[in-house]
């Protein structure tokens, strides 16, 4: 189990959404 990380810290799967 991994604790939810801040969206501004790391988003490997949704990084393209932030970079778009």
UniProtKB/TrEMBL annotation:
Region: Disordered, residue numbers: 1-20
Protein name: Uncharacterized protein
Species this chain originates from: Nymphaea colorata (pocket water lily)
């Amino acid at each position: 189990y991994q604790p939810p990380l801040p969206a501004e810290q790391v988003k490997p799967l949704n990084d393209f959404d932030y970079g778009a």
